[in-house]
Structure formats: structure tokens, C-alpha cells
Sequence to fold (194 residues):
Amino acid sequence: MGHFEGFDQAGFWDDSAYALSEYVEEGPPAPGLIASLEEELGGYRLPASYLALMAAHNGGIPGRDHFPLAGPSSRADDHVVITGIRGVGRTRPQSLGGEFGSRFWIDMWEYPDIGVYFADTPSAGHDMLALDYRACGRRGEPAVVHVDQEGDFAITPVAEDFEAFVMGLVDESAVHGTPEQDLDDAPGAVADGR
Fold:
């Protein structure tokens, strides 16, 4: 089964110097590394779609970093924002097995042990995105959830699976509109009201 049909991988990532030093592992993850990391992460099997994305570009900062929500999260009315997606490896601080990898947030920040914390947010650790294995078991296909450390670790559903999450990421302008649009809309709204 193919993943990410028609998806523009090349246009997805923003390879800044920061992304390359903090997130991007060199080369695709080898099977042995995947197996040892899954064990280290608590026996959670990483989704095939996650591994497919990492095989082409192992971790990084997406250019499209907003995910629209059906309802409010604890951070925003209608979306969550990510700063990066963790690579499968141990050499970068933000990789799944790195210094600030998934277990760091569970062990040091007491995030609930529901799965794998794969994406961080602009709050610098005060909320995270996780692959949630509670409903599917450690070998199943996890959902994507938002976990808010400041809101007593409230868990908000985000996407049915990792692929749906990545495919659903949009540009900031798709969520907020660009400032120019907002300015253009204002006079029209006033004119319509007359």
C-alpha cells in the first residue's frame, strides 16, 4: 500500500540551518535502528506512513505547519501549530531517540505515556503532538492527538492517523488569512453595511 499519493515531498520541508542541526537525521533509518528505537520508545510500532515519510527525509521542519481542528484545542480556537517533526534516529537533539526525544517528555516533563511524542510546538514543550496508541495497542495504527502540559495534560484528538495529519497540514495563511487580505476585506465589509 502506497503512502502520500500525489504528495509533494520536496516542497514540504523547510531545510533551514536550524532544521538541519536540530531535526534532520542523515539518510533514511535502517531497519535495525527502527527496531531498537521502537523498543526504546516503549515497544510502540511506528506507523508505516511515518517511516515512509522519514525514508525520504528523516525529520525536519515543515513549511506547512498549521493543522486546522474541528473544534478548539487548549492553545487556539481552530488549529494547532508544529515547529518540527522528529526524525527516526539518535544524532539530532529533536530526533525520536535524541536528547529531547519522545522519552524525555514522558520521563522529565511527566507527559502521559500514551505513545510517541513526534512533534513539538512553538510553546517550547508546554504542548506537544503524539501518536496515541491507547485505542489500538502498541502494534496498531495510532491516532494523532494534542497534549497540553499546562492544561493538566488535556488530550485533544487531531487526526485519525499520521498520514492524515501530514496531508492536512496547511500554510499559516490558510488558517489566519494574510494581513493584506484582512485589510482588503475591511473596507468592503463597511461598504456592504451601508
Q: What stands out?
A: The first strand starts at residue 66 and ends at 68. Residues 180-194 have pLDDT under 50 and may be disordered. The beta strands are 66-68, 79-81, 84-85, 115-120, 127-132, 143-148, 154-159. The chain is about 30% helix and 15% strand.
